[in-house]
Design brief:
alpha/beta; 60s Ribosomal Protein L30, Chain: A; Alpha/beta knot; four-stranded mixed sheet; 10 helices; elongated; binds S-adenosylmethionine
Length: about 260
């Protein structure tokens, strides 16, 4: 009998320790809810107060209540606190299997594409990357690609993305490996986006918080576009720039095609 199976019961803490090195941490009820909705494989999930977590599901997520009932194991507060970097107000945490890179790349490269890929060129801020993945999920973007050293599956990014990594393709690539499609790069010096229709197969590229678009990304860009901004304001925050651009893309779908 393994450590994980005693008295016919699996010990979720043992399972957790076995899987933690390779799995994706789903930190909090909402991350777990989103991951389940979008088909994540979740081998272990714990709650400090299982009844409270299921009551939250009754209220906010009846569609995944049964899945949660089957998955969630109650653990003492001290065991939970030892598993997560910082406790979440909902007292819920889970581990999910990270989707394969091959599957993610196939999804990103598949043509024809019905929604853009968002490219973050050398982003620095983990919270921004998470917010962008949440935006990509909301707008049904094909995926989010990052260049540079930031890991888009870092636990802080997954926390910022509220578990929505599982609804879209998220991979790190070099500029030379970007998926096919015309690159529309966002830069305050570009042409006004309001006069441009963004196609569904576009790669929408955004520069880093510190230094904007890299020379490599600029060289790959087919178009440079700017968001309306009055003089004396230097730039918008990265995630808000992505939000405005995806909203602009979505408007084209809402209008009759010319
Ligand atoms: C915080 S800004 C980068 C500011 C940076 N200091 C620079 O020199 O560009 C991050 C990214 O958001 C996008 N962005 C911000 N404001 C924009 C604007 N007014 N028009 C187009 N893109 C913008 C660009 O892609 C930019 O690289």
């Amino acid at each position: 009998m393994t450590d994980s199976v005693r008295d016919g019961q699996r010990d979720p803490v043992d399972d957790w320790r076995r899987l933690a090195g390779t799995a994706v941490l789903l930190d909090g009820f909402h991350a777990l809810k989103h991951a389940l909705r979008f088909g994540a494989e979740v081998p272990v999930a714990v709650a400090v107060d299982r009844d409270a977590a299921l009551a939250l599901a009754d209220e906010l997520a009846p569609d995944v209540r049964e899945a949660l009932r089957a998955l969630l194991t109650e653990v003492p507060q001290a065991s939970y606190a030892a598993l997560v970097p910082r406790p979440h107000p909902t007292g819920v945490a889970a581990l999910a299997v990270r989707p394969s890179r091959e599957a993610g790349l196939a999804r990103l490269r598949r043509l024809p594409r019905t929604a853009p890929v968002v490219v973050l060129d050398q982003p620095r801020n983990l919270g921004n990357a998470g917010a962008v993945i949440r935006l990509a999920a909301g707008f049904g973007a094909t995926g989010v690609v990052t260049t540079g050293t930031l890991d888009p599956w870092h636990p802080t990014v997954v926390r910022g993305g509220a578990g929505l990594h599982f609804s879209t393709a998220v991979e790190r690539l070099d500029v030379a490996e970007l998926p096919p499609g015309p690159v529309f790069a966002l830069d305050p010096e570009g042409e006004d986006i309001r006069g441009v229709r963004l196609p569904d197969d576009a790669l929408l590229a955004f520069g880093s918080e510190r230094s904007g678009l890299s020379p490599e990304l600029r060289a790959r860009a087919d178009h440079l576009l700017s968001l309306p901004m009055r003089p004396q304001v230097s730039s918008y925050n990265l995630a808000t720039s992505v939000a405005m651009t995806l909203y602009h893309w979505s408007l084209a779908g809402a209008r009759p095609r010319a």
